[in-house]
Structure formats: structure tokens, C-alpha cells
Specification:
This protein has about 375 residues and is of the alpha+beta class. Helix content is about 25%, strand content about 25%. Among the domains are: about 60 residues, Helix Hairpins, CATH 1.10.287.110; about 90 residues, Urease metallochaperone UreE, N-terminal domain (HSP40/DNAj peptide-binding domain); about 110 residues, Urease metallochaperone UreE, N-terminal domain (HSP40/DNAj peptide-binding domain, Sandwich), CATH 2.60.260. Helix 2 packs antiparallel against helix 3. The N terminus is likely disordered. InterPro entries: DnaJ (IPR012724), DnaJ_C (IPR002939), DnaJ_domain (IPR001623), HSP40/DnaJ_pept-bd (IPR008971), HSP_DnaJ_Cys-rich_dom (IPR001305), HSP_DnaJ_Cys-rich_dom_sf (IPR036410), J_dom_sf (IPR036869).
Length: about 375
């Protein structure tokens, strides 16, 4: 008993376009719906499923070959390419596995296969470069020299790939079509299929006399020096895009972009959190008790700050607008000075006597470690239940 095929999805209906819609109309419909149902904009679970359907519809209708399959009643995204039953279907005998394989016989190969000669000129790839900078450079910006090693246009052949005075030749194997045809016997009868030409690699042309400089690629690798302008306020990990400074494409195609990734070196004084700076300053115990004045050297100036009398360990002073300039907009972050109060580790006899006299004037009992029955021993007795 033959099972019924699954109904192909209405990709035109999903995007809300007619079957005669142009590529531009399909693209505009997709962008409009994608903005409406994108998960970042519409968190509704149903909207997320709708967004998946929209992407699937655009994937199919923006591909000429997949769109042809839809127009013939199939579904290129369904298992087996549309799930046609019959002798060639799943579990059946024959050289094909389903509707997709039948379409391969008609149109030549899998999705994205050969359909006429492919261009020798193709866009180039993007490139990325790591650039290490000091905190002062990321804070206030800098024009940094960089060296990049990428593919550039071959100046000998200007990207054509052929030696001077020679030209590309039409491939004799495929006659310039970039594909060769073969006849297959199927349950439908004889079917003509097309595959990429192995002689010209699908280009439809050959290079009898390749350029001696680039060996026919239309590009060569070289090391170049550039200057990149780093804006004030960039952070570690950010990337700066230099348009069309990446790899030149095969055949002299348009160059990709170059991305300069910022890596900020650690500073010996300041640590950075966003646009704020933090540092630690140690002050003597007496200065914290009596109060003092500190001179702080910031990234671009010197600032005087007052430490109030009685300042406790761990206190923080805030200097407004002395941090890193904001990358977007005006103003700067703040500078936070964290105070560490230093207690003397060694005292001579006179210093120790002065401190003890000072403690007595404040009514603070300080037990001597060399004497028994002091403060800590009485605390121990209290825990042990002794009077």
C-alpha cells in the first residue's frame, strides 16, 4: 500500500508574496517579517516558530533552483527533497531516492550545483589583526601603524590571470558552458543531467598561458603597512573595521574587510572597569587618623585629594571625570582611589610607650603579650565560664 506524500509548505504564502514576485520583492518581504518576528524583538514562542518558517521560506525562494522545485510542486527542505513516492521513493528500488534526486537529474547535481559557467572573479575574505595598546592609547586614541599580510591584486595581469599578450580560451571539453551533460536511464525514461566540467573546474574557460607572477589566480600575497586611527575610549576586545583592506578575491575580486581587534595591555597602577579607573594607595596609620593630603597622578594630570581624619581601612575616594573618555558621546568615567591603611610592624621602646599612653588616654586597654591574665586571657575565661 502506497503512503500519501506530505503536503509541501506554501513558502510564497509564508512571506506573503505572489508566485510571480521578483527577487527584490521577496527580499523586502523577508526583511519586513524578520524585523517583526525576530526573537530579540518578539519573545513570544509562536513568533520564534514563525521566524524559523520565514527564514526557511527566504532560503528557498532566494535560491533559483530551490524555487523551481517549489514551482514544480516539491519541497526542497523536506526529507528526500519533497518525498515523492513510487518506485524511486524511500524503500523503493531504482537509482533515485526521491523527488530531490529526480530534480538533480533535470537540473544537474545537488543544491548549488552547476548551472552554467561560474565566474572567475569572486569577493575576497575578511581578515583580522590583533593590535596591542597601552591604557593611555585606548583611553585617548592613537594613530597606530600596522602591518598586514594579505592577498592583493596582481599588478602584472590586473587580476585577469593570463600572461601579458595572451587571453583566456574557451574550454574545449564543455564548449564554454562550465558543465557537461550526461544521459541517465531512470524509471521516468532517459533523463539528461549536468555536472561541473572537470577540465575547466566549471569556469567555462581555461588559461593556456598563466600569469607568471600570480600563476593564474589574479592575486598575490604581500605585506603592507597601514595606519589605523584608534578612537578615544575603545575597550579590550573591540574591533575596528577597515573597509576593503582584507583579502582580494580570486580573479581580482573585491577585497574583504580588515578587522583590527584591540587588546589592552595591563597597567602597572590602574585597573579598568568600563570607563572607570581604579587604583590602590597605601597611607600610614597616623595619616589616616590625623588626616592628610595626597597627590594622585592620573592618566593626564595630577590631582590633590584630602584624606579626612579618622579614615578607615578600605575607604574609597572618588575623582569625578578623571577616568577614560566615553567612546560614544562626551564626558569621562571616574577614578576611584582605594585606601589601604598601613599599620607599623616594628616599634622601638619610645614609640611603643607613646602608643600605650595614647591608648590609655582613650580608655582603651591594650594587653601586653608577655603578661598573663590580659585581655585575651580574660576573654578565654569568659568563654570557659570562669568568673
Amino acid at each position: 500500500m502506497r503512503t500519501r506524500n506530505a503536503v509541501a509548505r506554501d513558502y510564497y504564502g509564508i512571506l506573503g508574496v505572489s508566485r510571480e514576485a521578483s527577487d527584490d520583492e521577496i527580499k523586502r518581504a523577508y526583511r519586513k517579517l524578520a524585523r517583526q518576528f525576530h526573537p530579540d524583538v518578539n519573545p513570544d514562542p509562536e513568533a520564534q516558530e514563525k521566524f524559523k518558517d520565514i527564514n526557511a521560506a527566504y532560503e528557498v525562494l532566494s535560491d533559483d533552483r530551490k524555487r523551481q522545485i517549489v514551482d514544480l510542486g516539491g519541497d526542497p527542505l523536506a526529507p528526500g527533497g519533497g518525498g515523492a513516492g513510487g518506485p524511486g521513493g524511500p524503500g523503493g528500488a531504482g537509482p533515485f531516492v526521491g523527488f530531490q534526486d529526480i530534480m538533480d537529474a533535470f537540473f544537474g547535481g545537488a543544491a548549488g550545483g552547476a548551472r552554467g559557467p561560474r565566474p572567475r572573479t569572486r569577493p575576497g575574505a575578511d581578515a583580522i589583526l590583533r593590535l596591542e595598546l597601552d591604557l593611555h592609547e585606548t583611553a585617548f586614541g592613537v594613530e597606530a601603524p600596522i602591518t598586514v599580510d594579505t592577498a592583493v591584486l596582481c599588478t602584472t595581469c590586473s587580476g585577469a590571470g593570463a600572461a601579458a599578450g595572451t587571453h583566456l580560451a574557451t574550454c574545449e571539453a564543455c564548449g564554454g558552458r562550465g558543465e557537461v551533460q550526461s544521459v541517465q536511464r531512470t524509471f521516468l525514461g532517459q533523463v539528461v543531467s549536468a555536472r561541473p566540467c572537470t577540465v575547466c573546474q566549471g569556469y567555462g574557460t581555461t588559461i593556456p598561458h598563466p600569469c607568471p607572477t600570480c600563476a593564474g589566480d589574479g592575486r598575490v600575497r604581500t605585506r603592507r603597512s597601514l595606519t589605523v586611527k584608534i578612537p578615544a575610549g575603545v575597550e579590550d576586545g573591540m574591533r575596528i573595521r577597515l573597509a576593503q583592506q582584507g583579502e582580494v578575491g580570486p580573479g581580482g575580486g573585491t577585497a574583504g574587510d580588515l578587522y583590527v581587534e584591540i587588546h589592552e595591555r595591563p597597567h602597572d597602577v590602574y585597573s579598568r572597569k568600563g570607563d572607570d579607573l581604579h587604583c590602590r594607595v597605601t597611607v600610614p596609620m597616623t595619616a589616616a587618623a590625623l588626616g592628610t593630603r595626597l597627590t594622585i597622578k592620573t592618566l593626564d594630570s595630577e590631582e590633590t585629594v584630602d584624606v579626612k581624619a579618622g579614615t578607615q581601612p578600605g575607604s574609597t575616594l572618588r575623582l569625578r571625570a578623571r577616568g577614560v573618555p566615553h567612546l560614544r558621546g562626551t564626558g569621562r568615567g571616574d577614578l576611584y582611589v582605594h585606601l589601604d591603611v598601613r599599620t607599623p610592624t616594628k616599634l622601638d621602646a619610645d614609640q611603643e610607650k607613646m602608643l600605650r599612653d595614647f591608648a590609655k588616654t582613650r580608655g582603651e586597654e591594650v594587653a601586653e603579650l608577655s603578661k598573663q591574665g590580659g585581655f585575651f586571657s580574660r576573654m578565654r575565661d569568659a568563654f570557659n565560664g570562669h568568673a
